[in-house]
Design goal:
The protein is α/β, with parallel strands linked by helices. It has helices at 24-37, 56-70, 85-97, 115-128, 139-142, 148-155, 171-178, 192-198, 212-223, 227-236, 238-244, 251-259, 276-289; strands spanning 8-12, 41-44, 75-79, 102-106, 133-137, 160-165, 183-186, 202-205. It is 46% helix and 13% strand. It is globular, with a radius of gyration of 18 Å.
């Protein structure tokens, strides 16, 4: 059995931008708020953090800054994925060097390798570092799925310990094949309770950016045996989840946070401002939940 990284809610944290760069004061404020609200782990520079629009120097500085601010109070996961294996290794090694507790490594996108290529890609990354590796399987963005059979092979590598799984339909098969050698975290806010029911350990969450305490409670209640509270929170959050994904993430969640007064700035191009229809849906969901 491999050591569990964390149980509960890991926020896939937005990166607050100004017109000229990263708003580090705001980033520190968000980190402190999440720790106060009970967030169990923080993912820096993931998809929601818009890592794909960050030059390496900026990406690395955001990771370094966040690790310093968090100062071991909660688990820090650093986004270090790439569709260039050498680049992913470089980022992963840097994240380990500055003190990340784990890295999140996304399925290579665009060049669309084979299952053998996925195995060799993640194997090379894992063998280049000693900290835990969390695989990120998100076929809707990468157009490539890590099959359960490939996950079984990868689970044999000592420091590949978990997968952020967005393909719920294969979760049971993955757990059947991998047993206690690979842990699952939900990559979809709408599937937290179903994945927990299969044996998942928590969620890596967009939703937690705006309701961190309830996202934490949703997981903790389930793991404590209070299934009804967990179920109720999952169902209550449905309008919020639908609104947060009415357009490409993180467009809606940044708009939501700005409506709530967090002032995290805009997304970077090619992501644009939320549409009027999307904004109206978002406002309605936030009002219904009591957030504005």
């Amino acid at each position: 059995m491999k050591k569990t990284l964390f149980t509960g809610s890991c926020v896939a944290l937005v990166t607050p931008f100004t017109d000229t760069g990263v708003d580090y004061d705001k980033l520190e404020e968000l980190i402190e708020w999440h720790i106060k609200e009970g967030t169990d782990a923080i993912l820096i520079c993931g998809t929601t953090g818009e890592a794909s629009t960050m030059p390496d120097e900026e990406h690395k500085e955001v990771v370094r800054f966040a690790i310093k601010v968090i100062n071991k109070r909660v688990h820090v996961m650093a986004g270090a994925g790439s569709n260039d294996t050498r680049h992913a290794i470089e980022l992963s090694q840097y994240c380990e060097e500055v003190g990340a507790d784990s890295i999140l490594s996304v399925t290579p996108y665009y060049n669309k390798t084979t299952q053998e290529g996925l195995y060799q890609h993640f194997k090379a990354i894992a063998e280049s570092i000693s900290i835990p590796v969390v695989l990120y399987n998100v076929p809707s963005r990468t157009n490539l799925n890590i099959s359960p059979a490939t996950l079984k092979r990868l689970a044999e590598i000592e420091n590949i310990v978990a997968v952020k799984e967005c393909n719920l339909l294969q979760a049971a098969e993955t757990l059947y094949l991998c047993g206690d050698k690979l842990e699952l975290y939900s990559g979809e806010d709408g599937n937290v309770v179903p994945l927990l029911a299969l044996g998942g350990k928590g969620v890596i969450s967009v939703l937690a950016n705006i309701i961190p305490a309830d996202t934490h409670k949703m997981v903790k209640s389930f793991l404590d045996g209070d299934i009804e509270t967990s179920r109720e929170l999952q169902i209550k959050s449905v309008p919020l989840e639908k609104a947060l994904f009415c357009e490409t993430n993180p467009i809606p969640v940044k708009a939501a946070m700005n409506l709530m007064g967090f002032n995290v700035g805009k997304c970077r191009l090619p992501l644009v401002d939320i549409s009027e229809a999307g904004l109206n849906q978002l406002k309605k969901a936030l009002h219904e939940y009591g957030l504005i």
